């Protein structure tokens, strides 16, 4: 290994630079190929009127000049502007165009992850192609759900940001890492918080016994300046876009009002798996899911202790591993905020990349069995959730959505048909309609604007908020309404009639009920004046 390092260091600088660029190009090609294969397999499979519709609606509205958070309930703005920019360039506002835009960001995240792993063993003369291909498979399996690939990629970018700083903590890198933290915060403020907490921990750790470079206070000041620079587009929006600052602040204040970032679910601990009633394969999956939840916490706790010990002993630490150590516990918060597989997938990347980095440095007898075991466990947990798998063997039907033929499950196909029938009967000339509480995808499906700001109405709201929403409904003059009396997580208190009683009462008083459909939970109404 020493000889290989000496040979590489002995190369002229121009050849070392060229070799580095060739490495990066190979990784970029691999990332593009993996994402392209996934898109070919499932780019036109599945459709969700729920969360994917939430993103699709926002992207369409931004294409029409509206502002996220101010004009409609939204994630943080950058993901909408990214999507809308690409969709506008393609001249396509459809769901598949949105998925393409998200897939491009997925390539960036996957490439970053592979680049980090390729740099673990600095003695290598060439890329370990088979190991990186296996690593790509592991990371791609956990890149779920599709509409939140921005979040998956942002978590990987956060690892890259921190590893970049830890590798050589100069003043320039403190500034650039802060800029990158501000950048990921524009895609999700939670990513800014997680990366910020991890960065502060790492800055303190770097100042323990390492000579040279900025001290803790100076480094923190430079880093914070970078965060402000990276987040400056949002700050400029707050200064220059009328109404955005108040709406953005209100979106932050509301999180503290409800005292949660998500609707919680009990953690599926591995010992709760039921082998007596569930099929054996399902029970094994439940055990693995529980073990992955445990792993995110245990890895974070042990790895932080390990890197602190190594630094105190003045021993080297792999920058990638140190970065994942500081990020694992912050991102575990995301996984545990709503303890299902979808949120686990978005909080697990520090653990995955940390494990793959450690295995990459081991002898083959440890490296390959460990990596294969991690890949097999990841496949067993995740493959059933991917739309391409769910639509295998003719289990889905073809439905035209925004000009593309999609394969969707029969329930979704029936829901799409119901919405189109209602629009044809009661709003065929482009009139507005109301769908609540959690089908925001109905609006981009039918290319309409939501009468309400809150397009995903799950949390209880104040009377003043509801009255403002009612005024928006009045102004839009909707011709029909669909209220889904759905108890999320089996909790009847989360039905729309309970979380938004004033709005629900307004619908009952100003709309006439329509005959029930196959799903009795769907409350259908037409505007009263339409019956005259």
What does it look like?
The protein is mostly helical. The chain folds into two domains: 19-387, no CATH class; 409-531, Rossmann fold (3-Layer(aba) Sandwich). Helices cover 64% and strands 5% of the residues. The protein contains 23 helices and six strands. It has helices at 2-10, 13-42, 51-63, 78-90, 95-118, 129-141, 149-167, 171-187, 189-206, 216-230, 232-240, 244-258, 280-312, 319-337, 341-347, 349-360, 364-382, 387-390, 410-426, 442-445, 463-476, 496-499, 501-510, and strands at residues 397-401, 404-408, 434-436, 480-484, 511-513, 522-527. It has a four-stranded mixed sheet, sandwiched between helices. Helix 11 packs across helix 12 (244-258). The longest helix is centred in the middle third of the chain and has 33 residues, at 280-312. It is globular and about 80 Å long. The model is unreliable at 1-8 (pLDDT under 50).
Q: What is the helix/strand order?
A: HHHHHHHHHHHHHHHHHHEEHEHHEHHEE
- Global outline: globular
Report low-confidence residues grouped into runs of 5 or more: 1-8
Q: List the total number of helices.
A: 23
Helix percent reads: 55-70%
Question: What integer value in Å does the Rg equal?
Answer: 25 Å
SS content category: mainly alpha
Spatial ordering of strands, largest sheet: 3-4-6-5
Q: Could you tell me the strand content as a percent range?
A: 5-15%
């Amino acid at each position: 290994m020493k000889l290989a390092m000496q040979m590489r260091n002995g190369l002229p600088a121009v050849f070392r630079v060229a070799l580095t660029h060739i490495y990066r190009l190979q990784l970029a090609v691999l990332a593009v190929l993996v994402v392209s294969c996934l898109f070919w397999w499932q780019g036109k499979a599945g459709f969700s009127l729920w969360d994917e519709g939430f993103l699709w609606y926002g992207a369409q509205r931004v294409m029409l000049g509206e502002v996220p958070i101010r004009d409609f309930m939204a994630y943080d703005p950058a993901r909408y502007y990214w999507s809308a920019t690409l969709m506008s360039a393609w001249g396509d506002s459809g769901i598949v165009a949105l998925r393409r835009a998200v897939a491009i960001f997925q390539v960036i995240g996957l490439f970053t992850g592979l680049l980090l792993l390729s740099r673990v063993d600095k003695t290598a003369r060439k890329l370990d192609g088979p190991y990186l291909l296996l690593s790509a498979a592991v990371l791609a399996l956990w890149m779920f759900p599709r509409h939140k690939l921005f979040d998956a990629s942002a978590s990987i970018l956060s690892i890259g940001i921190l590893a970049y700083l830890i590798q050589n903590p100069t003043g320039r890198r403190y500034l650039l890492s802060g800029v990158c933290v501000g950048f990921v915060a524009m895609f999700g403020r939670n990513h800014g918080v997680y990366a910020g907490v991890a960065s502060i921990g790492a800055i303190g750790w770097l100042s323990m016994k390492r000579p040279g470079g900025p001290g803790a206070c100076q480094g923190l000041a430079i880093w914070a300046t970078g965060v402000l620079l990276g987040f400056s587009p949002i700050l400029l929006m707050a200064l220059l876009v009328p109404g955005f600052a108040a709406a953005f602040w209100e979106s932050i204040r509301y999180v503290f009002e409800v005292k949660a970032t998500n609707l919680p679910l009990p953690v599926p601990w591995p010992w709760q798996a039921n082998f007596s009633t569930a099929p054996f394969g399902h029970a094994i999956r439940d055990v693995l899911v529980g073990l992955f939840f445990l792993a995110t916490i245990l890895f974070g706790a042990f790895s932080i202790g390990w890197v602190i010990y190594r630094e105190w002993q003045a021993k080297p630490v792999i920058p990638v591993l140190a970065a994942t150590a500081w990020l694992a516990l912050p991102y575990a918060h995301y996984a545990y905020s709503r303890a299902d597989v979808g949120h686990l997938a978005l909080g697990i990347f520090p653990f995955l990349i940390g494990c793959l980095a450690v295995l990459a440095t081991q002898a083959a007898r440890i490296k390959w069995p460990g990596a294969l075991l991690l890949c097999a466990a990841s496949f067993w947990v995740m493959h059933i959730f991917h739309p391409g798998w769910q639509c295998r063997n003719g289990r889905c039907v073809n439905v035209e959505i925004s000009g593309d033929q999609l394969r969707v499950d029969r329930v979704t196909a029936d829901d799409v048909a119901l919405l189109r029938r209602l629009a044809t009967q009661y709003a065929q000339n482009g009139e507005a309609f109301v769908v609540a509480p959690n089908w925001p995808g109905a609006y981009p499906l039918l290319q309409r604007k939501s009468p309400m700001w809150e397009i995903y109405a799950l949390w209880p709201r104040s009377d003043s908020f509801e009255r403002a929403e009612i005024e928006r409904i009045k102004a839009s003059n909707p011709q029909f309404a669909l209220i889904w009396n759905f108890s999320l997580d089996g909790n009847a208190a989360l039905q729309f009639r309970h979380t938004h009683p004033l709005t629900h009462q307004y619908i009952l008083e100003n709309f006439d009920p329509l005959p029930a459909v196959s799903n009795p939970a769907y409350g259908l109404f037409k505007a009263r004046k339409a019956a005259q």
